[in-house]
Amino acid sequence: MEPRARAGKNVGKMNFAHNELAQLLYGDGDVKAPLPETVRVLDEIVTDFIQGVSFEATRAAHHAGRQKVKFEDFEFAMRRNPRYMGKIQEVFEKKKEIEAARKNFNIDDQLVRETNAEEKQAKQASAKEGGAKGGSAGEGGSKGGSAAGGAARGAKRPRPTEEELDEGDDDLDAEADIGTATKKRG
């Protein structure tokens, strides 16, 4: 007699999705659309296997004085079958690798967010400083409508500070250095 009772609620019902079992069969060499009877039999076999292993693991945990089943209990239940044992160990090792990679990814992602936030704050601070400096420069009337304004346009522009430089300023500075500036941006 078997030491465990069969669960009556699972008799005649599918415990796994038809598509999952069909893909499992196809992956092992069956046709793409297996017979429904084949899928039903595989469902019973897989369900019976999982129940048996879980029962053995629960028995090992109970023998050790624990109510919760741990990984070691499944290892103990599979100790007689090295093939299954190796597969279980491989799955748990992969799980640990994925968790470690996910943790590293979250740390890296957090660092990137913090860096972006710091850069954004620095840009906002420099924009506030630039707005305070540039606000008083344009108060003196019209821009370039008079002869004095035209003379001011022909004069050399003061070099901007490093915080004010961006991509467009690089071209003007390079042309000014070699003396080939043909057109000035205003």
Automatic annotation (TrEMBL):
Family matches, as InterPro entries: Histone-fold (IPR009072), TFIID_TAF13 (IPR003195)
UniProt keyword list: Nucleus, Transcription, Transcription regulation
GO biological process: RNA polymerase II preinitiation complex assembly
Family annotation (CDD domains): HFD_TAF13
Extent of Acidic residues compositional bias: 163-176
SUPFAM superfamilies linked to this entry: Histone-fold
Primary location recorded for the protein, binned into one broad class: nucleus
Transmembrane regions listed in the UniProt entry: none
One Gene Ontology term of the molecular function aspect: protein heterodimerization activity
Native organism taxonomy: Eukaryota, Fungi, Dikarya, Ascomycota, Pezizomycotina
Subcellular location: Nucleus
GO CC terms of this entry: transcription factor TFIID complex
Protein name from the UniProt record: Transcription initiation factor TFIID subunit 13
Region (Disordered): 116-186
Entry keyword NAD: no
